[in-house]
Design a protein that fits this description.
Blueprint lengths: L1 H13 L4 H24 L3 H15 L3
């Protein structure tokens, strides 16, 4: 019984399938923080960017 538990714990410790998902999440969070800092420092409003994009798409589709 103890041997089975130890074996399962060792295999769990060696399993790295979730590690890449966590790494991608950390990278995405860093990119988001960098973009927020960059937009904040330049004085560009994220809202104005999306409003401009929405206007362009609406104009292009004839809506």
């Amino acid at each position: 019984m103890l041997n089975t538990i130890l074996t399962k714990m060792k295999s769990f410790a060696k399993d790295e399938t979730g590690a890449s998902a966590i790494e991608y999440a950390v990278i995405a969070a860093i990119v988001v923080v960098a973009l927020v800092v960059a937009f904040g420092a330049s004085g560009i409003s994220v809202s104005s960017i999306f409003t401009g994009m929405f206007t362009d798409v609406t104009t292009a589709t004839g809506g």
